[in-house]
Amino acid sequence: MDGFININKPKGITSFDIIRILRKTLKMKAIGHAGTLDPLATGVMVIAIGGATKLLQYIEAEFKEYVAWLELGYETDTLDLEGKIINEADVPSFESEGVAKILSDFLGKSTQIPPMYSAIKVNGQKLYELARKNIEVERKPREMEIFEIELLGCEEKRVQFRAKVSKGTYIRTLCSDIANKLGSVGTMSELMRTAIGNSKLTESVTLEEVENRVLEGDYSFITSVEDQFKGLEKLEFSEKYYHWFLNGRPIETAINSELIALYYQGKFIGLGTVHKGEIIRKYVKESHD
Fold it and tell me: Which residue from 69, 126, 216, 280 has the fewest beta carbons nearer than 10 Å?
């Protein structure tokens, strides 16, 4: 059984907890996820099962959309509510128009220094492991892009905004940067991921729903690989190239897309990557006869 599950992660459990619960519910070991969410965060987690786990890198590369809550006046060492307060500052008065203008300044490509409390590795060690030992190391700025950002609401010391961002964007760091632009310091108090690519929160299922449906023999919550990647460019194989694909033989092509959906006799058979003008087998559907 291959495919993807759009899970609505609840607050208070880790991303690995989601995997552990689903392995027990689905009675499968080959399960992975695209894009970790911290325990305090909620929202979309795209889960891959079976052979679809080979495709997680392409899900992870897609844009992500969040709704975040920023609290002004204090900053924690983790930049969220899990940490201890390390800095405090006055909060100047502001109006929504001014906040909206500051948010718009973050649009486009830029660089961002990852927080110490992140899973990035430096010299083989995860940053959060070093941070827990009170060791801070230099982090190189990483490229990121904010495609959309809008103000959803603001109060005296609290700002809510929506952001559509590229892979590798840390919303905690963005919150801190926004607070600095407002003339204060700040901490992300809540985070909800509303989309990863075409996987939206409005179409997600809870762990409880998955468990109940499995008991009823209903697996309609699993999205097929074909449907998950339905926006890809398509290529129809002749019989010769169809067998070449199944045997893992590279096939020359003029297509420039990194990933393409492959068909034979009108039926989806798998996905291929394009490298140096050749289609290389990436995924083969379990049954395509």
Answer: 216
